[in-house]
Amino acid sequence: MQDENAQPTNGMSQSDPVAPSTPQAHGDRRAPHNTDNDLTDGQAAYNIVTDTVVSLNMRKSDNKFQAIFILISVLVCAGLGAGLAAMKPKWDLPPEAGALFGAFAGLVVGLFASGIILMIYRAVRHVQGKHD
Fold first, then answer.
1. Is residue 109 part of a domain?
2. Residue 81 sits in which domain range?
3. What DSSP designation does 32 have?
4. Residue 88: C-alpha distances to residues 77, 78, 91, 97, 102 (Å)
C-alpha cells in the first residue's frame, strides 16, 4: 500500500511547475519555441545559428537589402571615381578608369557596410527574441 503523502521517486513534487523535461530544468540551450506563424521551429533555430555563430544567411529580405545597398554604393563610387579622374589631370587617368576604380571601391565598401548594418540589426532582433 502506498502512502498518499509520499514524494515521487524523481525528487520533484507534484506541485512543482518545472518538469524535468523542460529546457529550463536541464539548463540546456534548445531553440526557443517560434512565435512567428510563417516560420517553423527548425527555420527559427537555423536563423539563431546564422545570427550568432556562422553560416549562410538565407533570408530573402536581408539578401535583397544587401544587393540593393551594394548596387547603390557601386554606382555612387563609380560616379565619384569618374569625377575625380576628370578633375585631377595630374593622375593621367581617363574618367572610365576612374569609374572602374570607384566601382571596385564601392563594391568593397558596400559589402562591408551592409554586412555590418545587418549584423547590428540581427543582433538587436536576436536580443528582442525575434528570429524571423
1. yes
2. 59-124
3. P
4. 16, 15, 6, 13, 14
